[in-house]
Amino acid sequence: MPNSPANTLLLFGATGDLAQRMLLPSLYGLAADGLLPADLRIFGTARSDLTTEAYRTVAGEALTKYVPAEYRDDAKVSAFLDRLHYVAMDASDPSQFTRLSDAVGAHGGLAIFLSTAPSLFRATIGGLASVGLASGAVRLALEKPLGTDLASSREINDAVAAAFPEERTFRIDHYLGKETVQNLLALRFGNSLFEPLWNAGGIDHVQITVSETVGLEGRAGYYEGSGALRDMVQNHMLQLLALVAMEPPAQFGASAVRDEKVKVFRSLRPIDRASAASTTVTGQYAAGAVGGQPVPGYADELGKPSNTETFVALKAHVDNWRWKGVPFYLRTGKRLPERHSEIFIQFKGVPHSIFASRGASVLPNKLVIRLQPEETIRLLMMAKQPGLDRDGIRLREVPLDLGMANAFADTRRRIAYERLILDLIEGDPTLFVRRDEVEAQLRRRHLGPFGRHCADRTRRGELA
């Protein structure tokens, strides 16, 4: 595994929305805290016809807009902007890559971040290879989506592999950069309290929810071609399921962690046409109100009729010894009443309540891991309600809360991309997605709820 830090970072799509909202603020945060290599040069490239000075102005405006004022320091902002360089080019034109190579020059270590449309991946990688920017220890990070189905994913991955072997390919799922997602591994494997119960003997069911209040928000072209299944279920939500369900890895390293996740994907029970009706629901939002304000329906925003699903709920099973018989409920959608992402784990109830004869009800324990908007871990437990108990014992469900912001008030909460960019620069692939993971996820989706059967039923109007 390449592990020497890069001294040059090359950002494709450097003027795009992701770059301005996430990548540049993340790089500034790392630079401000002294975490980037001192000699790291950052090159941005895109079609926009800008000079380096003009791009630094664009980047400075992005930092003003997206970095909280308390984290901005004029001297550190200026020093960060001085690291930035810009090369205007069209990635679909092979002849323009020489200009990029000349600007980047000789490099002891290069890391490349592709924040472009997947349709440009093949041309971009071919152009990089043609000018020597894919050889040696050059690392490549790719943003999703990596194909719409198994065949298209393999086509993209084959194009990547022609120039970048697997150990130098970093596939991004930004959910894996979230602190609370990483904390799930610490919760499971750093505490003896949970692991003995983390199986079909101790857990009744698991719910994974990612709900959004927004609609298309300018992403009509992308979303109409993907829908909720491809946009959320096939990547983010299956990654969360894998972290909940995986076996303990031998060590916290890239190969060990990703090996265990792949085993989960391969154990997912396919849903065929006969079982799809009882295990999946899809739908599409219509006109309504959010926060008391009217909002249009999906088809209205799109400007034409559509059967693309904006809501998915499904019941999945992991058929192995640990999880046999435990349902995993996944749900995600847009224009829902509340924005939140969470993992909800309900344990099995006590086998016998000694309090029933005294009028008390005992509820199963629950563990709630909230990813957004706030990051919290909450354990719901039974406790006795204070009193003399002359009319019977009263038990109440009470929360034990661990708010990340409070527990680590002395530590700045970082953007998920900060961790992922730093890992890319340093060459640590643990929190990135391996090719066999992607294909295992798509293969299960292709065979069952994650693709053809659900999508076909939605298009026929059976579930919409």
Counted by DSSP, the helix tally is: 15
* Principal-axis shape: globular
CATH architecture of the largest domain: 2-Layer Sandwich
Uncertain residue ranges: 445-464
| Total domain units | 2
Sheet with the most strands, sense and barrel status: 8 strands, mixed
- Strand proportion: 15-25%
Q: Give the number of DSSP strands.
A: 16
Rounded to the nearest angstrom, the radius of gyration is 24 Å
Average pLDDT number: 85
CATH topology of the largest domain: Dihydrodipicolinate Reductase, domain 2
Question: By CATH's scheme, which homologous superfamily of the largest domain applies?
Answer: Dihydrodipicolinate Reductase, domain 2
CATH class of the largest domain: Alpha Beta
Percent helix, as a range, is 25-40%
Structural class: alpha/beta
Terminal Cα span? 46 Å
Strand order of the largest sheet: 8-11-12-7-13-14-15-16
